[in-house]
Write a structure and sequence with these properties.
The protein has ten helices and no strands. The chain is an all-alpha fold and about 180 residues long.
Length: about 180
């Protein structure tokens, strides 16, 4: 079956990417749930350039209207966990997740996955930094997890990590020590 909306959206996503194009598509997605749902279909099953660009658009939606993407939380988690950690798509999806309001229930498997990404020196620094930020938000739910995350962050050999990750660790430790 031919879907004119999906075809038109595909064509626009495959245009030369620009910030103006991405922001325009994000505004359309915030105004039309069919556009937003189509973007998610591209993220989950599209070809590589479509997946990235659709995720870029949705990341802009998540920054401005995170409530619009709440229904995708579990699917985003599954997608993040299924991707190779060297994938830029994983970084974009973690960013989308980060902008969502905190979940009421803790996804322990996802939390453990994030802890693995934090400690994996082969993970890109963007993935590591977002894994720290997401895990920090998730750890508010449980004192034990909060302490576990603090222990991991305090014991990281920061000399082995890029400057951006070191900064996220330091900022997280400052905030966490003030919270408790």
């Amino acid at each position: 079956t031919v879907n004119p909306l999906m075809d038109a959206l595909r064509e626009r996503l495959l245009e030369r990417p620009s910030k103006a194009l991405i922001l325009s598509l994000a505004r359309e997605a915030m105004d039309d749930s069919d556009v937003l749902n189509s973007l998610f279909l591209f993220i989950y099953s599209g070809e590589e350039p479509l997946r990235w660009r659709a995720a870029w658009v949705v990341s802009k939606v998540s920054e401005q209207c995170p409530s619009l993407i709440m229904g995708q939380r579990s699917r985003i988690v599954r997608e993040v966990m299924s991707l190779d950690s060297s994938s830029g798509l994983q970084r974009l999806l973690l960013g989308i997740y980060y902008h969502m309001p905190e979940a009421e229930e803790l996804d322990v498997e996802f939390f453990n996955y994030l802890l693995d990404r934090i400690g994996c020196l082969q993970s890109p620094s963007g993935v590591q930094a977002l894994a720290i930020k997401v895990a920090a938000r998730m750890s508010h739910i449980d004192d034990t997890l909060h302490e576990e995350l603090l222990c991991i962050l305090r014991n990281m050999e920061l000399d082995y990590y890029p400057a951006g990750v070191r900064a996220v660790v330091r900022n997280c430790l400052k905030r966490k020590s003030k919270v408790r």
